[in-house]
Design brief:
Blueprint: H1 3-10, H2 43-55, E1 59-61, E2 67-74, E3 77-83, E4 86-91, E5 100-101, E6 105-111, E7 115-116, H3 120-127, E8 139-149, E9 154-163, E10 166-180, E11 187-199, E12 212-226
Antiparallel strand pairs: 1-4, 1-12, 2-3, 2-12, 3-7, 4-6, 5-8, 6-8, 8-9, 9-10, 10-11, 11-12
Length: 229
């Protein structure tokens, strides 16, 4: 049985681009969608996430075992950056064995000030006004529109990416692995790897075109854990 069928039958996986927990570790925290409120995400989409949580179909990203980063060519080298503060999750509502679904949901928020690179000089440049401008645009946001299953354990997640105050459609290429515990029919963890390529000029970050490539690869590798409420 392929991963898409398992996830659909068992119900769900939840993602998507925030302090890496869409659901806080503190069990007393009630407002699990707070990182995505204040007009950032349509209230109807947030309601779906809350429904998934109430039904036991919510998977939160585990920060200490997850990575979100990017790489871009610059001169003779490749600059790699990693964010350490992000939140998100996956929500795949039960829908039978289908290949495409707009009911499944993925969300991710990344705090741009948490960026780290191997060079302090490069890091400060990327965080500055020429690129991310973290003081003015403190967050990167991804919100999905639909999932398209492409294989036994692969899918495309189509959605909108907001960077530097500009929103553009993107498609994440995703592989998923469902993990169960012995004697438990529930999917307890989902390992998700996703990547996409964007043009930074599409997001009005077109400085230093002769030195820094316009093509940027975004890479996400997360462990999402089922939220039990």
């Amino acid at each position: 049985m392929n991963i898409s069928t398992i996830l659909k039958q068992m119900l769900v996986a939840l993602v998507v681009m925030g302090s890496v927990s869409l659901v806080p570790a503190n069990a007393e925290e009630v407002d699990i969608c707070s990182p995505f409120k204040d007009g950032k995400v349509d209230e109807r989409l947030l309601a779906r996430m809350l429904d998934a949580a109430d039904s036991g179909y919510l998977y939160r990203i585990k920060e200490d075992t997850s990575q979100v980063g990017f790489c871009v060519s610059s001169g003779w080298t490749q600059v790699k950056g990693e964010f350490h503060d992000f939140s998100g999750g996956l929500s795949l509502m039960p829908a039978g064995n289908v290949t495409s679904s707009s009911d499944d949901q993925a969300m991710l928020i990344i705090r741009t000030a948490s960026l780290e690179t191997r060079s302090t000089t490069v890091e400060n440049l990327i965080k500055g006004e020429s690129f991310f401008n973290v003081s003015k645009y403190p967050e990167i946001l991804f919100v999905s529109h639909r999932f398209e299953w492409t294989g036994r354990d692969s899918a495309k997640i189509l959605g909108d990416l907001t960077v530097h105050g500009v929103t553009r459609p993107v498609t994440l290429q995703v592989t998923l692995s469902a993990i169960k515990q012995p004697g438990n029919s529930n999917i307890e963890r989902v390992l998700v790897k996703a990547n996409t390529t964007i043009q930074r000029s599409d997001f009005e970050m077109d400085n230093l075109p002769g030195l820094v490539s316009d093509t940027v690869t975004l890479c996400i590798s997360v462990e999402a854990v089922r939220y039990s409420g």
